TrEMBL record, chains A, B:
Keyword DNA-binding attributed: yes
UniProt lineage: Bacteria, Pseudomonadati, Pseudomonadota, Alphaproteobacteria, Hyphomicrobiales
PANTHER family, sorted: MARR-FAMILY TRANSCRIPTIONAL REGULATOR, TRANSCRIPTIONAL REGULATOR, MARR FAMILY
Keyword vocabulary terms for this entry: DNA-binding
Sequence segments annotated as region (Disordered): 1-21
Domain of life: Bacteria
Name of the protein in question: DNA-binding transcriptional regulator, MarR family
Pfam families from the UniProt entry: MarR_2
Gene3D superfamilies, A to Z: Winged helix-like DNA-binding domain superfamily/Winged helix DNA-binding domain (1.10.10.10)
Molecular function, one GO term: DNA binding
Domain HTH marR-type: 24-160
Length: 178, 178
DNA sequence: AGAAATTATTTTAAGCCTGAAATGTTTTTG
DNA sequence: CAAAAACATTTCAGGCTTAAAATAATTTCT
């Protein structure tokens, strides 16, 4: 950002990372990211309700199923959406009732439930997805292409950092368990 | 889906913004941002439960109240947290029961409820906030200071873009209403 | 002043979401 | 082969969240 000269000025001019034990910058970054996510989520939620009388969890679930031709198990969906298994069970129940999703146990392993979009489900989803893509573009319209690319890249680094930190802690916990 | 020949090859080489009507980059950006937010939220939620036996909504609410000496109204909190009024009412109820938050109607306007942290609430929150700040720093540890600053700046631009897009649409809706 | 509009909050009904316990199924192991 | 372990999903209890309707208080307008 700027070019400071002496060591003390350096502390003043650079960000808090120079001050030991201070992590305000990371906190502010997180709060700003959360604000952005919440604004987008709320807006998409509103538009899905107004324009398609549906909810974001339903849309997200259908989006996963649309990505595959052969269907997906409950566990697979739950992992991809980063929600609990029980949650998937509940949301799927609604979609099955509405004839948008088909659920059947796998013939070779009856523990597993295979979820697929019905023909109608696929049709309905495709229509929503098209609008959804426009909405997202509209929301990000204030960023030019290089800014989008840059942001995408930095969020990639963030994701890596998060995975490392979370896995690290899980490892610690496991060590304690053993 | 097939390999195009002349003009379209250019499309392949340049970014999607060159293809009219294609907004895949924005969509991928949003999905990546959502992944990051969800990872952080889930991790913070887990740690708050394990270490302090509390929930993220409660923590967030207390964080707002900690920012003021004179207290905050229900509406003010709801706006800042970007959640519904009814939600604040419910979460506050729990915190009042636990003696962490105090709620009383404003003397000059009895419609308004003033929320403040109790002494205990402030003490409990401060302890959690300190840990929380460390956790966030830990999660972002893979980013160096310039990356954090850059990301913060880009998310600022994003926020501006979002506000403009959302306000714009609200304006349209209002026009229709009149 | 009194009616109407506005404002702040709460209530309600419905759906989302979680972690943990329970259920049913398959695989491993003694 | 049968018991035990592992696995996939569902159920359950509890809390969060929302939009919309209801309630309560204040302000505005005539």
């Amino acid at each position: 950002m700027e070019t400071p000269s002496s060591a003390l000025v350096l502390d003043r001019e650079t960000k808090a990372s120079e001050r030991p034990g201070d992590h305000k910058d990371e906190l502010r970054l997180w709060l700003r990211m959360l604000t952005c996510s919440t604004l987008i989520e709320t807006e998409i939620r509103n538009r899905l309700r107004e324009e398609f009388k549906t909810t974001l969890p339903r849309f997200d679930l259908m989006a996963q199923l649309d990505k595959t031709a052969v269907g997906m198990t409950v566990g697979e969906v739950s992992q991809r959406l980063m929600v609990s298994n029980g949650n998937v069970t509940a949301v799927v129940a609604g979609l099955v009732t509405d004839g948008l999703v088909d659920k059947r146990s796998a013939p070779q392993d009856r523990r597993v439930q295979i979820l697929t979009l019905t023909a109608q489900g696929r049709k309905v989803f495709r229509a929503m997805a098209e609008r959804h893509e426009d909405w997202i573009a509209e929301l990000f319209a204030g960023l030019d292409q290089p800014a989008i690319a840059q942001l995408f890249r930095l969020l990639g680094e963030t994701k890596t950092s998060l995975h490392r930190a979370i896995a690290g802690r899980a490892g610690e916990a496991a060590k304690g368990d053993a």
